[in-house]
Design a protein that fits this description.
The chain is α+β, with helices and mostly antiparallel strands. It has 9 helices and 12 strands. The longest helix is centred in the N-terminal third of the chain and has 24 residues.
């Protein structure tokens, strides 16, 4: 078999958890304000996105990084798939059984999911182009910048360790409004719930909101104010009963984080379109 040409920066196993009954994803293209459906095979992916030319030039496998991602995805697909089965049957406040190794793997996966997207590559390119060099960055140079970040153990492990040490709480959605996702699905919210951030977990109190499926969301709260008192609920299913408005509030994070595409199991993006118009304004300022 030939090498895969289309490399996903959001895994297919994850995308399939947001499909409709026919196995199709509904997408809203924020740039063109266009709605369409597609197979998970063709979403959040680019040709040769992780193909490392410099490795091939030195006689090594140019798909080393793609294969490393694939291996981690396989492990995490099995782990989180079991979680979803349990969480759909559990009673509120009941705890999910998560061995230390599984917690470590999922923490690494979430950290890499945040760092591996097209959004991060574009961000690194913009920084490089506005540095002292002040020159355009080629596609290959952009790929190298991204590779250096993803293989920088200090950068990846710093974020993964913060996620691993956080309090993990799961929310279950029984409304008719599904959780949505995007092509940049790891969202960050400030401790006062007032703002979504694209800069990660560096601000005190900021926590992760990561939809696992259209009916389950995962929160990673740092053990610091204002969240230190909920540490006893680590690995628990939240007793909170979601309303449609609460689901829409969490979905707004995916609209904010999206590089371009917002993903859903249904062909309806009216709320998402309305929220997108407020980004960059002070409409929701305290």
């Amino acid at each position: 078999m030939g090498e895969p040409k289309l490399h996903h920066y959001v895994p297919q196993f994850y995308l399939r958890r947001f499909t409709d009954v026919s196995g199709r994803l509904w997408l809203w293209d924020r740039e063109r304000d266009r709605i369409f459906s597609a197979s998970p095979k063709k979403v959040a992916a680019e040709k040769h996105f992780y193909h490392l030319t410099e490795l091939a030039e030195n006689g090594h496998d140019p798909l080393t990084m793609e294969k490393q991602f694939s291996h981690l995805e396989g492990e995490v697909a099995r782990i989180t798939g079991q979680w979803l089965d349990w969480l759909r049957q559990m009673e509120p406040v009941e705890k999910v059984k998560i061995p230390k190794i599984n917690r470590k793997l999922v923490s690494l996966y979430i950290a890499l999911q945040f760092l591996r997207t097209a959004d991060t590559r574009e961000f690194l390119t913009i920084i490089a182009e506005n540095s002292e060099i002040q020159k355009p960055v080629s596609a290959e140079e952009s790929r190298l910048l991204h590779t250096d970040l993803l293989w920088d153990d200090k950068s990846v492990r710093g974020l993964a360790d913060r996620i691993q040490s956080a309090t993990w709480v799961f929310g279950r959605n029984a409304t008719l409004t599904p959780f949505i996702s995007s092509d940049n699905p790891v969202a960050f919210r400030t401790g006062d719930n007032a703002m979504w951030l694209k800069v990660g977990l560096h601000s005190a109190g900021t926590y992760v909101v990561f939809p696992l499926a259209s009916d389950i969301v995962m929160y990673c709260y740092p053990k610091e104010p204002p969240w230190e008192k909920i540490a006893k609920f680590d690995r628990s299913l939240s007793p909170v009963v979601f309303s449609d408005e609460m689901v829409e509030s969490e979905n707004s994070g995916q609209v904010f984080m999206a590089s371009r595409f917002v993903l859903s199991s249904r062909n309806s993006f009216d709320k998402e379109r309305a929220f997108a118009k407020t980004i960059g304004t002070d409409l929701y300022a305290r």
